[in-house]
Amino acid sequence: MEYLERRRARVEERLEAVLGGVEPAELADELGHVTLSGGKRVRPTVTVLVCETLGGDPADAVDFAVGIELVHNASLVIDDIIDDSEVRRGVPSAWAEFGFGPAIIASDGLLGEAFALFSSNERAMQAVSESMVELGEGEATELVAQPENESEYMELARRKTGALFRAAAELGAIAADADAYTVEAFGQYAERVGIAFQMRDDVLDATAEADDLGKPTGHDAAMDRPSLVQVTDLTPEEANERAREMSDEALASLSTVDAEDSEALAYLEDLAEFVVVRER
């Protein structure tokens, strides 16, 4: 785990530096509350690991890693407003702490800081922009037309969760100056990891204790949200099996890449397996 912690620490250090330069101080406090209150840092870790897997210098991927984490956190601020969630990562959500207006401004601020980090690289800008289009369309679709079967659920999960995971991996490959085929292969891997992550999230919402999860549970059922369990009537065990199948597809995508047999690659493989057994 020391291997991963060193990489997370580098991302965390750069994240703090970026947020430390935000003005005014009130906005900096809001962005820090949202972003520095915890989080798994899965997406930025994927960015760094993909870069290393391809023989790139992890230092070249850190700004992209921080950027995708900021985009992710911006989306969480809006999710909490839509869901009326008062807690995120064991602390008050942005709107509960600061009010709706400041929370929306905080989301905008996070996106602005993120795109400043991507702006020097056209390929990075394209990858992130495409993922945000998918995310926005997924969020809008969920509000107006909830999925009614497993196929529609999978498409929504791909857009809402898979898209940002895809961008995280693509950014790592871009940082390593990879060719288009390699960028796409890593993107497929991460998109499938993201979908499996969302499926497991749905199971945890239905089965975990709120104190263990760090956020309210039972939200999907209470709000009639389109979780895998709600849409398909699968049992939690069957839903977990679906997530494992998606994880296997992610590993299959990863196996098509001509990458070094490195520690970084091993951690990417471990991630695909971990997302379907995690408890938080």
TrEMBL record:
Signal peptide: none annotated. The keyword rRNA-binding does not apply. GO terms for biological process: isoprenoid biosynthetic process. Its cofactor is Mg(2+). It comes from the Archaea. One of its GO terms (molecular function) is prenyltransferase activity. Keywords: Isoprene biosynthesis, Magnesium, Metal-binding, Transferase. SUPFAM superfamilies: Terpenoid synthases. InterPro entries: Isoprenoid_synthase_dom_sf, Polyprenyl_synt, Polyprenyl_synt_CS. Belongs to the FPP/GGPP synthase family. This is Farnesyl-diphosphate synthase. It comes from Halorientalis regularis.
